[in-house]
Amino acid sequence: MSELTLMILRIGFLLLLWLFIFAIVYALRSDLFGAPVRKLPNNSSTSDGSAGRQTAAPVAATPVSAGAAAQGTAPPITPSGGALPSAGASAQARVLVITSGSAAGTSLPLDDSVITIGRSTDSTLAIVDEYTSTYHAKLARSGDQWLLTDLDSTNGTKLAGSRVSGTVLVPTFTPVTIGTTTFELRP
Question: Among 114, 95, 113, 115, which residue's Cα sits nearest to residue 105?
Fold first, then answer.
């Protein structure tokens, strides 16, 4: 073999090795820091007419007080864990209650028309969990009902044990599972 051919083979082999090294570094970066961030469109306007993001910090979930449960305001627990029959307008969901996971027992008032859920600090409900995507899912109010949309998350979103594809209606007292966290919408 000539010197030129040998030199070209060495350079080609070196380039191939560097290509593998960059592929490994890219895969490690994705595993450690997550996928590249994508922004959700925010079509809401503030009261002064200016459009844009809210500047408030993410809403922290507050614990459900034991006094509220003692007064009978806590929702009944069904053996099946399924939805209760609707009692008219009183069945409208007003609070999101985390039933299992690292933040079990906390609640979040459903004051906004859109609740974003994910690992991002920009999310309304930030779930710090390795099985939760940066922007995992969103809950959107439609009249008195709430619609759940999975945002192409890696591990998916489950409603009553079934994987969500597209947008689905979320009845009250129906468990929604994202990663290792389960929550319900309650009146």
Answer: 95
Distance CA 157, CA 31 (A): 20
* CB burial of residue 49 (10 Å; 0-12, 13-18, 19+): exposed
In this structure, the chain runs to a length of 187
pLDDT digit string, tens, across residues 133-179:
888 888 888 888 888 888 888 888 888 888 888 889 888 888 998 88
pLDDT tens, position by position, 92-129: 888 888 888 877 888 888 887 888 888 888 888 888 88
Contacts of residue 83, Cβ cutoff 8 Å, sequence gap at least 6: 171, 172, 173, 174
Check if the beta carbon of residue 97 is closer than 8 Å to that of residue 183: yes
Spatial contact of 147 and 65, defined as CB atoms under 8 Å apart: no
